[in-house]
Amino acid sequence: MNVRLLAVAEVELAEAVDYYNGQSEGLGFEFAAEVRQTLERIVEHPEAWHPLTPRTRRCRTRRFPYGVLYRVRDEEILVVAVMHLRRAPQSWRKRLGGRA
């Protein structure tokens, strides 16, 4: 199954990596590895995590306070957001243009 990130999700991931690397050398790369492991879990079990809407689910990272919000589309996982769980938790909805 392919994984595709919306452009805004790619930006969120890059910004979080930069932030964590600024906090402690290498921590951002550990965060990126954690997100990669989260995506692998999603690919293995795409229907396993909490549905936020009928089509959108969230899988939390294990070590960092982030969630990967995604949709399953045929043979693709579409990542809608890589979001900090304590900042504007509903902001991802507007990305889908009312199709949440």
Describe this structure in words.
This protein has 100 residues and is of the alpha+beta class. The chain has a single domain, classed as YaeB-like fold (2-Layer Sandwich), CATH 3.30.2310. It contains two helices and four strands, in the order E-H-H-E-E-E. A hairpin with a 5-residue loop joins strand 2 and strand 3. It is globular. The two termini are 22 Å apart.
Keywords, separated by commas or semicolons:
100 residues, YaeB-like fold, four-stranded mixed beta sheet, 25% strand, single chain, globular, alpha+beta
Oligomerization category of the chains in this entry:
single chain
Computed over alpha carbons, the radius of gyration is 13 Å
The CATH architecture can be given as 2-Layer Sandwich
Structural class: alpha+beta
Q: CATH superfamily name?
A: RelE-like
Could you please say which CATH topology applies here? YaeB-like fold
Q: How many DSSP-defined strands?
A: 4
Beta-strand residue fraction? 25-35%
Please trace the helix and strand order, writing H or E for each element: EHHEEE
Could you say how many structural domains there are in total?
A: 1
Shape: globular
Q: Summarize the amount of helix as a percent range.
A: 25-40%
Give the mean pLDDT. 90
Low-confidence runs: none
End-to-end gap = 22 Å
Number of helices: 2
- Order of the strands making up the biggest sheet: 1-4-3-2
Biggest sheet details: 4 strands, mixed
CATH class placement: Alpha Beta
Give the secondary structure arrangement, pairings included:
Layout (H helix, E strand, L loop, with lengths): L1 E4 L1 H17 L3 H18 L12 E4 L5 E8 L2 E9 L16
Parallel strand pairs: 1-4
Antiparallel strand pairs: 2-3, 3-4
